[in-house]
Design a protein that fits this description.
This protein is of the alpha+beta class. The chain has seven helices and 13 strands. A hairpin with a 2-residue loop joins strand 6 (170-176) and strand 7. Helix 2 packs antiparallel against helix 3 (65-86) and helix 4 packs antiparallel against helix 7. Bound molecules: 6-O-phosphono-alpha-D-fructofuranose (P6P). 6-O-phosphono-alpha-D-fructofuranose binds next to loops.
Length: 327
């Protein structure tokens, strides 16, 4: 029995060609998004097979979970570097798994710079918890040199962002200015189909997502913010950034990973976690801040720098920041 009726909704490639090619600022963006979708479909298969591979020991490099995770982190990084490079539109890639800048090309058609966390939360694979891939996309201006500086553009210069959540279904969210669209992978056709058009974060905040185990490490004002949230919202925390953000994007919520006196910049990365999700949150009517400023206004100093991150429902983010900054 075929569980899935053929959808009448557009597949990603048709949507992208129709929606984005009309705007010259998005010239070739559909090829970059298609490269992300191709890599995601490949990684989705590997992630689903990983534990099974461990169980049946199909090859040495997956015989212990620790090596499965490392294998999948590297496999995801390699897959997306390959598909993005072959798109013919990407000049440079920054990647959580790669220390330096991946310089792809500096021709006139290499119009985009992509920063990515290819497989975020991979330590959750061995307990079958959702994980994700995150992408920030910037324009490379005509004639602009392609070098390490290519990876230090502030988030407010992003032209698009995307993430893929590998959960009970595999969903790819793509945002450009004033547009957030969701596509679900059809396991039979291996195509992403439009299933969540014109996403907006619901006005009503339903939950907060934070690691309450860190509470005692937090400074007084951040503890006050946590106590305020406890009194108003349910706690929903997967421990996988993309899964927590995706639920909050669809259902309304706020995610916090603040700094603390020992780690003032928190845990999450600015360029390929906070900036892309901050871009998506803002295009969906939400907000994204560090502990003091709009995430996308931070001038990067290093491609792997960390930042505190508070993002989701705009009003609740602003209220939370106000409490955190009350000395
Ligand atoms: P903690 C996963 O390791 C990750 O980088 C994010 O996906 C997630 O939001 C965060 O760390 C969870 O961190 O300290 O709560 O386990």
């Amino acid at each position: 029995m075929t569980l899935i009726k053929p959808s009448k909704n557009p597949i990603l490639s048709n949507y992208a060609a129709d929606a984005w090619s009309a705007d010259s600022r998005h010239d070739g963006l559909d090829s970059v998004i298609a490269a992300i979708a191709d890599g995601a479909a490949l990684i989705e298969e590997k992630v689903r097979a990983a534990t099974l591979a461990d169980a049946i020991g199909t090859s040495d490099e997956v015989n212990v979970q620790g090596e499965i995770v490392q294998y999948l982190d590297t496999a995801a990084s390699d897959a997306f570097v390959d598909t993005l490079s072959r798109s013919g539109r990407v000049a440079a890639i920054g990647c959580e798994e790669i220390e330096g800048t991946v310089v792809v090309g500096d021709g006139p058609q290499h119009n985009y710079i992509v920063q990515m966390d290819p497989l975020d939360g991979s330590s959750n694979i061995d307990v079958a918890v959702s994980i994700g891939s995150i992408f920030g996309i910037w324009r490379r201006e005509d004639g602009e040199a392609v070098n390490d500086a290519s990876l230090l553009k502030p988030g407010n210069q992003q032209i698009a962002a995307a993430y893929v959540v590998y959960g009970s279904s595999t969903v790819m969210i793509v945002a450009v200015e004033n547009s957030v669209q969701g596509f679900t992978l059809d396991p039979e056709t291996r195509q992403f189909v439009l299933t969540h058009p014109d996403l907006r974060i619901p006005e009503k905040c339903s939950c907060y997502s934070a690691n309450e185990g860190n509470f005692d490490k937090l400074d007084d004002s951040t503890q006050k913010a946590f106590i305020e949230l406890r009194g108003k919202y349910s706690l929903r925390y997967v421990g996988s950034l993309v899964a927590d953000f995706h639920r909050n994007l669809l259902k309304g919520g706020i995610f916090l990973y603040p700094g603390d006196p020992k780690s003032p910049n928190g845990k999450l990365r600015l360029m390929y976690e906070a900036n892309p999700l901050g871009f998506i949150a803002e295009q969906a009517g939400g907000a994204a801040y560090s502990d003091s400023q709009r995430i996308m206004d931070i001038q990067p100093e290093h491609p792997h720098q960390r930042t505190p991150l508070i993002l989701g429902n705009r009003d609740v983010v602003k209220q939370t920041i106000a409490i955190i900054n009350k000395a």
